[in-house]
Specification:
The chain is an all-alpha fold. It has 16 helices and no strands.
């Protein structure tokens, strides 16, 4: 009787035991797949974040703005040393280091302006405020670029390193506070152009001409106040909310300053082309032929800022505004031909022979 009851009880338990064993086998089979899917998803998200940061970083470094750093070649070209391979190499290295320093400064500026840029109709599309680039990544890269450019410049020329350091200090403090001080904000922006031009002279071992400093300063001031004028026109009554210094500007004041600095820049360039030091170095007064290009370029920029609501990003005009781009190319081309006419003629005569 007991044996019969035991058999009956075992027969009842067998289906339950089979079910439990089957569930365990399924769990073991499914577990690796689940872990694999989780791993794949995590890797996918990591790759997505990495790719987004790389794309954002490529934009935030503003490689198009590196054209500003071509000012380091100004002394090389206008001193007549552009046919010296050693000087060319030094200037190219200076261009690379200034590009690294300026990109580091752009990242610092974007980090400091993050809250305001999120409210700006145009700047909110920049990588950091739009969320494309992580602020942490931007901060790390900025520190690396600033340190690398400063350290690299010391290996080339101590004086050039001093100019890089000066540039970084000015624009870090500009990003933190000084951009809120009316008029000084525009002067500091202009100083960046002058530092680049003077650095180029130091790098190749020539004295920075007073004409170089004056012309660069006035044109840079003209462009800086043009940027503020564009912001006033674009933002209207909300301008002060985006940049506190704009509360103290007016369109009339900025138009007057642009007129003053543009006139001063034209007169200064005219005097430079006719100065005895320029004529004796070049061997003629032919550089006066480049004056119309300077006048056209300045008047074109005034028109774009005041009539077309453009000019907030002057570098962008060089890429998008064909007349400005053509005018700059003609000015540079004619200047090079005039300064290096003897070398060009000698090269042509050797080729023809």
């Amino acid at each position: 009787m007991n044996s019969l009851m035991t058999c009956a009880r075992n027969s009842e338990l067998q289906p339950l035991q089979s079910t439990v064993l089957l569930c365990r086998k399924l769990k073991k089979a499914i577990a690796p797949v689940t872990i694999s899917k989780i791993t794949i998803n995590d890797e996918g998200r990591m790759f997505s974040r990495l790719s987004r940061n790389l794309i954002g970083l490529g934009i935030a470094l503003r490689p198009k703005e590196w054209i500003k750093n071509s000012l380091v070649f100004t002394s090389l070209i206008f001193s007549g040393l552009a046919n010296d391979p050693q000087k060319i190499t030094l200037s190219l290295l200076g261009f690379v280091l200034f590009s690294a320093a300026s990109s580091g400064v752009y990242l610092v500026n974007d980090l400091c302006d993050l809250a305001d840029d999120r409210l700006h109709p145009v700047k909110k599309q920049r990588p950091i405020p739009s969320g494309l680039l992580s602020p942490v990544v931007a901060g790390i890269v900025a520190a690396l670029l600033l340190a690398a450019s400063l350290l690299g410049s010391f290996f080339i020329h101590a004086g050039f390193a001093g100019m890089i350091l000066l540039y970084e200090i000015i624009f870090i403090f500009y990003s933190l506070k000084l951009k809120t001080i009316v008029i000084l904000d525009a002067i500091l922006i202009a100083s960046g152009f002058v530092i680049r031009a003077v650095s180029g002279a130091i790098l190749i071992g020539v004295a920075a001409s007073e004409w170089l400093v004056l012309c660069t300063s006035l044109v840079a001031l003209f462009i800086s106040f043009g940027k503020r004028r564009h912001e006033m026109g674009l933002l209207g009554e909300s301008a002060a909310a985006h940049r506190s210094a704009l509360a103290h500007y007016s369109i009339g004041f900025l138009d007057s300053v642009m007129n003053i600095t543009s006139a001063a820049a034209i007169v200064t360039y005219l005097l430079y082309t006719t100065a005895e030091s320029t004529v004796s170095r070049i061997g003629s007064r032919l550089l006066m032929l480049t004056i119309p290009f300077v006048i056209y370029g300045i008047l074109r920029y005034i028109m774009l800022v005041q009539n077309c609501q453009k000019g907030g990003e002057p570098v962008r005009l060089l890429y998008e505004d064909f007349p400005s781009k053509l005018n700059l190319a003609l000015w540079l081309g004619v200047s090079i031909i005039i300064i290096y006419k003897e070398q060009i003629l000698n090269s042509l005569s050797q080729i023809m022979l």
